[in-house]
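Researcher: I'm comparing several assemblies side by side, and this is the next one on my list. It has 290 residues spread over three chains. Same procedure as the others: predict the full complex and return the structure.
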Amino acid sequence: MTALDPALVTDWFAAHARDLPWRRPGFSAWGTLVSEFMLQQTQVARVVPILEDWLRRWPTPADLAAAPPAEVLRAWGRLGYPRRALALHACATAIAERHGNRVPEDVDELLALPGIGDYTARAIAVFAHGHRHPVVDTNVRRVVARAVQGVAQPAAPNARRDLPAMEALLPDDRAAQRAFNAGMMEIGAVVCTARAPRCDECPLGAVCAWRLAGYPPPDAPPARRKPRFEGSDRQLRGRVMAELRASDVPVGETELVAVVPDPGVRARILAGLERDGLAARDDDGWSLPS
DNA sequence: AACACGGGGTA
DNA sequence: TACCCAGTGTT
């Protein structure tokens, strides 16, 4: 394992970083938190417009905490995984009530908040507050696997290994570590992509262990069949949620039959949404939670 | 360790 | 049409 010169990453990032809202000077810690929640599951291009509307409407955690969940779910729209909108709302409530309406700086305090795990806690500590931590997402794991370890694909995610591996590469300097974390993610997102890496554009091209080794192929993945999306409960949940978002009044059984014809499946979908706090039933039908 | 969880994009 | 993307929480 050759040491990686951090300047290769930070210099490239300074010259090639995409212009994104959360990279603007003065972008708030709260804005960074909201952006990280949205980016957990959704591509940059889909997040940007929703994020900007969201922050105009709810500029601080207390503003979001005061909003009814139904409005939060409508604003989340088609970003996907609507449970995360609820987690963000709960997170805002906790910050407003227990942290004086200020986004915590400490990783352990962040990890204790709803919807924040290993990645998001460190991303906020680093990008919102400038603290020094390894930030490891799937892009970083792929870049480290290739450039440092010389293998095509990273092993299964494991914080016990992944965090020390990134820590070992991280520069000490406060500004440089921030640019290094952001730069490694950016390289993974736009250059060292999973399927068709653009090695001729890569700032690590001259030192990449995988490239230098002649691009050894990945180990054969264990045969494992993936669930199809078409017709899945996931797809049906999404369609029911779209109906609820679109309606000002409770949605009755008749309309839901058109979305999920099978009575057993329909009952299962609605029970799941109710259990997750995404839908509520009253005498007139189903609504978003008030 | 495996699964559940949306929705859109690419080959 | 088939496959890919990706972090958190639960089991």
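Model: For your comparison table: The first strand of chain A starts at residue 280 and ends at 282.
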